Amino acid sequence: MTASFDNLTPDRILDAVEEGMEIRLTGLTAPLPSYINRVYELESVGGERLIAKFYRPGRWNRAALQDEHDFVLDCSLDEIPVIPPLQLAGGGTIGNADGILYAVFPKKSGREMDLVGDEGWRRLGSLLGRIHLAGSRRHADSRLMMHPEHTTLPEIDLLLSCGFMSRHMADRFRDVAGRIVEIAIRAFDEVVLQRIHGDCHRANILERPDEGLMVIDFDDMVMGPAVQDLWLLLPGNANSCRHEINLILDGYEQFFEFDDRQLRIIEILRAMRIIYFQAWCSTQIDDFRFQSNFPDWGSDMFWQREVSDLEHQYHAIINDEHLKSGMY
Questions:
Q1: How is the chain split among helix, strand and coil, in percent rounded to 5?
Q2: One digit per residue, pLDDT tens: the chain, 328 residues?
Q3: For 5-108, CATH number?
Q4: Are strands 95-97 and 205-208 parallel, antiparallel or unpaired?
Q5: Are 221 and 150 in contact (CB under 8 A)?
Q6: Which residues lie below 8 Å from residue 214, measured CB to CB, with a gap of 6+?
Q7: What is the per-residue DSSP string for 31-64?
Q8: Any residues with CB less than 8 A from the CB of 123 and at least 6 apart, and which?
Q9: CB 302 within 8 A of CB 296
Q10: Which of 48, 142, 234, 294 could cross-link to 63 by cystine, CB 3.0-4.6 Å?
């Protein structure tokens, strides 16, 4: 029988964490926003606030979650501001509540960082350089490999094979996605893949008063190109953000060497993310919350917009100055 969040009652949450941590809790089980997992704020009888994350069954296996925890712990050992999981009483950082894997974290709050002037971009770069230095020290063998052959091609096949589009829209999608992947596979020939955050947008970087920047939510960590964590922070496309890129790299290379050839794949990665997101959506269509948030997903009008966006991104790729300058 497959584990389900349906049985994750407040009593079961409290029992699991009390047993796993060998502590006593008050009755507080305040749910926190999370679409994928179930996350709750708890409180010990001594007044310590904790965050319990119960991972969606079937998404990551234990080995993949261990890869995530190892990365965060490696960052913590390097004194990088992250929130490492707490050790459980039985050893390790991953517990099991009736088939649902979970972890417990100390509660730490912050506000979204303010990017003020050039120094703000350099601060971001320094933080990323330190994270990637820690990430380079070992592999995450059970995590996804962010490479067009391993991720994007299967995602395209999924979207085309399940009848989500009309024949006309499927033909357009197949054509533009195929052209993008052909370019992407060649561009990835010399790209080194390592442990990266994978979803390093600004909402996942918090400012803590008197402490500086803190990175949260390593849930989507992958083996991928370092530049993935860079481009998600940019305010526009690669051609329009050369100043910001240079400032990030000024800070980054104080700690870790960056391969400038990776700049040529920024717009390719943006296209890959568009395809990834729609493939992910296609696995959520039976979820009532997804249906409420995306009521027109899968309609012909929806695919008209999405394929047009992908075609626009294809032209951004072939007009990217990094590609045209001879770097690729």
A1: 50, 15, 35
A2: 567 888 899 999 999 999 999 999 999 999 998 888 999 999 999 999 999 999 999 889 999 999 999 999 999 999 999 999 999 998 999 999 999 999 999 999 888 888 878 999 999 999 999 999 999 999 999 999 999 999 999 999 999 999 999 999 999 999 999 999 999 999 999 899 999 999 999 999 999 877 789 999 999 999 999 999 999 999 999 989 999 999 999 999 999 999 999 999 999 999 999 999 999 999 999 888 888 889 999 999 999 999 999 999 999 999 876 665 554 4
A3: 3.30.200.70
A4: unpaired
A5: no
A6: 81, 82, 83, 108, 110, 205, 206, 207, 208
A7: EE--SSSEEEEEEBTTS-EEEEEEPPTTTS-HHH
A8: 212, 213, 251
A9: yes
A10: 142
49's tokens = 């606030």
Q: CB–CB of 181/154 below 8 Å?
A: no
Domains of the chain, by residue range, sit at: 5-108, 141-245+259-327
CA-derived radius of gyration, the chain = 21
Q: Identify the helix (H) or strand (E) that includes residue 67.
A: helix 62-77
First to last CA, the chain: 50
CATH architecture assigned to 141-245+259-327: Up-down Bundle (1.20)
> Which two tokens mark 176?
């533009």
| The pair of three-digit structure tokens given for residue 263, joined into one six-digit string | 């700049």
